[in-house]
Amino acid sequence: MTLLDSFLIRAALAGLGVAIAAAPLGCFVVWRRMAYFGDATAHASILGVALALSFQTSIFTGVLVVSLLMATTVSTLSNRGYAMDTLLGVLAHSALAFGLVAVSFLQGVRIDLMAYLFGDILAVGRLDLAVIWGGALLVLALLWWRWSALLTATLNPDLAYAAGIDPRREQLVLTIALALVVAVAIKVVGVLLIAAMLIIPAATARPFASTPERMALIAAAIGGLSALGGLQLAFALDTPTGPTIVCLAAVMFALSSLTSLFLRGNRI
Amino acid sequence: MSLVTLNNLTIHHGGNPVLTGVNFNIQAGEIVTVVGPNGSGKSTLLRAIIGALQPSSGQVVRASGLRVGYVPQKLHIDPTLPLTVRRFLSLPLRVTNAAATQALEQAGAGRLANQQMAGLSGGQFQRVLLARALLCDPQLLILDEATQGLDQPGSAAFYQQIETVRQHLGCAVLMVSHELHVVMAASDRVICLNGHVCCEGEPEQVASAPEYRALFGSGTQGALALYRHEHNHSHDQDCTHEHHDHEAAQ
C-alpha cells in the first residue's frame, strides 16, 4: 500500500469518494427542492464536532449523530406545515452558532476551527480514507437499493402510496444518506461547503441528461472531476483545497448553463 | 367480490371532518363515479382508498393483493428532473419495451415514448399517466379529476379511451369528476358526495335526486343527453313511468 503513503493520493481518493456519493444524493436534493435542508444538516454538524471532542469520541460519530438528529427534526417539522424556509433559516444558523459557541467552551483541546469549516483534505489519513469510502459506498448502496421507490416518491407521494410504497420511509432513507454524506464530507470540504458538493454537480448535469439515472451519473463525473481538478489547482496555486474544489465545480456549472442556453437558442 | 370496502369511514383534516360515516364498496368490473362540489371530500375519499390517508375512524378494507392503477389529479414534475415518457412508465417497477408500447397504445399515446414528460401537452400527459396506471394490470383503476385542464372534446375523448380500456382489461374504474354530464353517462353507479354520501344509484337516479339537485341545480341533467343519445329527457317535467325510486324535484 505504498501508493497510499502519498498525502496527495489520499486526498485525491478522499475527494473522489465524497464527490461520487454526494452527486447522486445531490440529484434528489435538487429534485425535491431540499437544498436548504442539506445546508441545515451540514451546519448543525459543527455542533457534532464540539460534542465529539468533549466526549472524546470520533468526529465521524459525533457529526453523524447530530446530523441525523437535525435532519430528522427538520423532516418531522416539515410535515407539520411550518413555513419551511423560515424554519430552516432558524435551525441552520442557530445550529452553527451553538456549535461555534460549544467549541469555544472546550478547554485544553486546541482545535483548528478552520479545518472543520472549510475542510482539511490534505490531512486525510488512512483511517479517514477508510471511513470516507465506507460511508460513500454505504450511501451509494442505499440509493441503489431504494432508487425506484425514491424516484416514485419524489415524483408524487400519492403515486407511491398507490404502488404500495410509503413516501415517509423513503424520506427517512434520504435523511440517513444525507447525514452520512455530511459526516464523511466534513474532512474534505468542511461544513460550510458540503451543500455545494451536493447541489452544484447535480445542477451542472441537468442540461445534459434525459433520464434521472443519466443525470446522477453525469453529476458523479462532474463531482469527481471537480474534486481531482480542484486538488491539483489548489496545489499549483497554493489556495485552500475545499474552496478551490467548489470554485471549479461552480465554473463548470456556469459553462454548462451557458452551453445549454446556447443550444436552446440554436434550436429555436 | 368487493375490491374495496369502506366501513363507516371518517377522516379529519386539521381538526375538521372532511368525510363522515362513509360506507362504500366497489365490485370487480364496475364503473363508479363520485361527484360532488369543491371541498366535498372526493379526493380525500380516493386518497384513503390508495392508503395515502389514515382514517380517523372506520375501516378501509382492500381485497388481498389488490392491484391499483392510480391516475392523480395533477402531477407536477420539477423542471430539474429529466424524465422521458419511457422512463416514467418504469416507475416503480421496470417494464419491458413491449409492455410499455402496448400500454401507451391502449392509452392512446403511442409514439410518445422518447419525449420528455415536461414537453407533453395536457391531453398527452393525462394519457401517459393512464398508460402508467395500466402497466400493473390493474383490477381497479382510480382516476382523480383526470381531465382537469382538458377542453370538452379532449375530456370526452379521454373518457372514451377509459371506456375502451375498461372493456379491454375488464378492470373496475373509480373516478372523480366535475364534469358530471360527461362521466355520469358511462357509469354503472354514481355517488354524490358532500362530506357524506348524499345519494347514490344509477346515473339517471342520481341526476334527478333532490339531494343532487340541491347541490348542482337541475341544469346539468339536460347535458346528460348529449352523451347518452338513447335517453330521451323531454319527459323530465312530467315523468310518469318509474325509472328511479327518488322523487324528482318538480
Automatic annotation (TrEMBL), chain A:
Membrane topology of the entry: Multi-pass membrane protein
Alphabetical list of Gene3D superfamilies matching this protein: ABC transporter involved in vitamin B12 uptake, BtuC
SUPFAM superfamilies noted in UniProt: ABC transporter involved in vitamin B12 uptake, BtuC
Matching Pfam families: ABC-3
Compartment(s) of residence: Cell membrane
Claim: Cytoplasm is one of the keywords in the record: no
Record keywords: Cell membrane, Ion transport, Membrane, Transmembrane, Transmembrane helix, Transport, Zinc, Zinc transport
GO cellular component term of the entry, any: ATP-binding cassette (ABC) transporter complex
Similarity-based family: Belongs to the ABC-3 integral membrane protein family.
Biological role stated in the UniProt entry: Involved in the high-affinity zinc uptake transport system.
Protein name: High-affinity zinc uptake system membrane protein ZnuB
Organism ancestry: Bacteria, Pseudomonadati, Pseudomonadota, Alphaproteobacteria, Rhodobacterales
From TrEMBL, chain B:
InterPro entries the UniProt entry points to: AAA+_ATPase, ABC_transporter-like_ATP-bd, ABC_transporter-like_CS, Metal_Ion_Import_ABC, P-loop_NTPase
Entry keywords, A to Z: ATP-binding, Cell membrane, Ion transport, Membrane, Nucleotide-binding, Translocase, Transport, Zinc, Zinc transport
Residue ranges, annotated region (Disordered): 231-250
Cell membrane is among the record's keywords: yes
Entry's Gene Ontology BP terms: response to zinc ion; zinc ion transport
Residue ranges of every copy of the ABC transporter domain listed in the record: 4-219
SUPFAM superfamilies: P-loop containing nucleoside triphosphate hydrolases
Domain of life: Bacteria
A molecular-function term among this protein's GO annotations: ATP binding
Pfam families listed in its UniProt record: ABC_tran (PF00005)
Keyword Ion transport: yes
Name of this chain's protein: ATP-binding cassette domain-containing protein
Species in which this protein is naturally found: Parasedimentitalea huanghaiensis
